[in-house]
Structure formats: C-alpha cells, structure tokens
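Input record (one chain):
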Amino acid sequence: MKALVAVLPGDGIGPEVIAAGTRCLEAVAHRFGHQFELRPASFGGAAIDAHGDPLPDSTLGLCRQADAILLGAIGGPKWSNPDARIRPEQGLLRLRRELGLFANLRPVVPHPALLDASPLKPELLAGVDIMVVRELTGGIYFGAKTRTATAASDVCEYTVIEVERIARVAGRLAAGRRRSVVSVDKANVLETSRLWRSVVERVMREEFPQIKLEHMLVDAAAMHLLRRPRDFDVLVTENMFGDILTDEASMLAGSLGLLPSASLGEGPRGLYEPIHGSAPDIAGRGIANPYASILSVAMLLRHSLQLEQEAAAVDNAVSRAIDAGALTPDIAGAGRAASTTREVGDTVVRELDRQ
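The corresponding structure, as predicted from the sequence alone:
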C-alpha cells in the first residue's frame, strides 16, 4: 500500500527517538512491499524558533493530507515560561483540536524481562495488560481561562456528545479484550464527573451490555493501579485525570520510555507519539529510549493503516530486542550493559528483517 506519514521530530530527544521510529517504518515498507512517504515538518519549540508559531500553517496542512502523523516530543527550558504568549504545548493542543483527535489510547504492558525495572514488586506486574482511554479535547485543558492580579480560573466542561463518543471507544476496545471497563471520575465532588458517570453508564448499558462496567474515583484509581494493576483491562477517563494516571502507570512498565500512544478521531488518521517528554537533559547524548517511539509506529500501522500483520511484526521485534538485551540506561539496571539509542534501533530493525 501507499501512505503519507507526516513526521514531526519536535524538540529535545524527539529527533533521536523519531529517527529510530522512521527507520522501523522504512524496514516494514521494505519487508512487506509498501510505499511509505515520510515527510518531515517543523513543530513545537523548533517551530517557534523558525516560524514564531508552534504549529505553522504548512505543518498543519501536511497533517491534514497525511494518512498518519508520527510525533517525537516537544518543549524544553528554552520555552518553559508559563507566562509566555507562545508555548510549544499550544501547538499540540491545537493540532488535536484541528484534526478532531479526541481519543488517546495508551497501552501499558510490562515486558517479562523488565519487571525488575519497575519500583513495584514483580509479582504485582506479571500479566498486567491495561489500555487507558483518555478523552483528549475537552475538560479543563480546553475550558475558558481567566486571570487577574488576585485570582485565576480554568473552566472544566464536558458535553454529553463528548462523553458518549469516548465511552464508545472504550466499549469497542473492551469487547475485543477482557470485556471490562473501569470509568474513572470524581463524581463525589465535580458536576462534570457526575455527567460523565451517568453518560458512560447509559452508553455501556444500551450499546455494550456484554461489558462489565465499574466506576472508580480518581484517587482510588491511583491507589489501585499500584496495588492491583492486573485487575484493570480498559480504563476510560477524562482529559486531566488521564494525563496524570498514565504517567503513574508508566511505572508499571518501568520507564516512560517504553509507553507509546495513539490519538484518534472518527476516521483512520491518527497522531502517534511516545508519552514521554523531550528530556532536554539527555538530548544529544545517544541514550534516549526509542522503544516508545517504535511501539507508536506499531500503533500507527495497526490503527491508521490497518496493517495488523506489520504492526504485530514490530511488536514482536521490540520484544525480541529487549530479550536480546538491547536496553538503554533507563531500563538496563545494575549489572547490565546499556545500549545507545542507535543500537536499540539497529537491533529492532534486524529483528524485523528476520521475520
């Protein structure tokens, strides 16, 4: 097949991990006979420096044309002033809104060889397989904002339609997994959460009666993710709660550098990115973990290009590379030799070529 992929390397370690991801896409194209056009564009802090805008019109235009978008990471100390008029994260929020990407999927599946990389006991992690579904374009991040010399406000708002569509994503995913959904809210305090809870319950009852639904307050969910992570199948929640809980869940896998994500809308086009930040403190040192970027490529193949065999090949290549000991310093641990970003990418590509 032919596909156009917009490549947004971003800032910090973004270009390094994205280079590993694009090499894997090229290896997949060669191995399976596809034609992927990988077209780079400026985004985030780099785009502010070059164009005065974190999402230039040319980049947005490319993303509208593309079948999928692969993103590294954005931001860094240079652009970290929260009072600045233009900031890198504004480009990401706008890109999600412009493309209608309302559902963020974040799988958490600890690799058996890396259970000791997590601060949790290995016996708590065996068999963990969680899909977090985070609503991405509503809530407090997108609400009206005010600030005066003496006060500030951020409005958290959700509509019935916004909650219905994210609940359907969770229901469809759960139907192909273990048929269990935990919906996370703060319904004992927040009116938006009470709306969230009632809508999710109705959608599951009417459209997914085969799915077991449990409601859980966000503080309890944060605790149970660490106490009994194996009990979670699909976890669905609103924007800010999902942002926080998925960073917590990364500790189940052992490192932020292991977790990919997909941001999807109503159609096949999606935005794929590792959940980690730009890590400017290690940028340029060749030690950034590229696995989350490579696993994001697998999600791109699966969800936007509908290439399940190719996606599974990437997942399997990553698993075999980890088993072979290709580990960057964040997951190598004591007594293991650490690999560079480039060496990890080389190992994954070799494993892809062997399939």
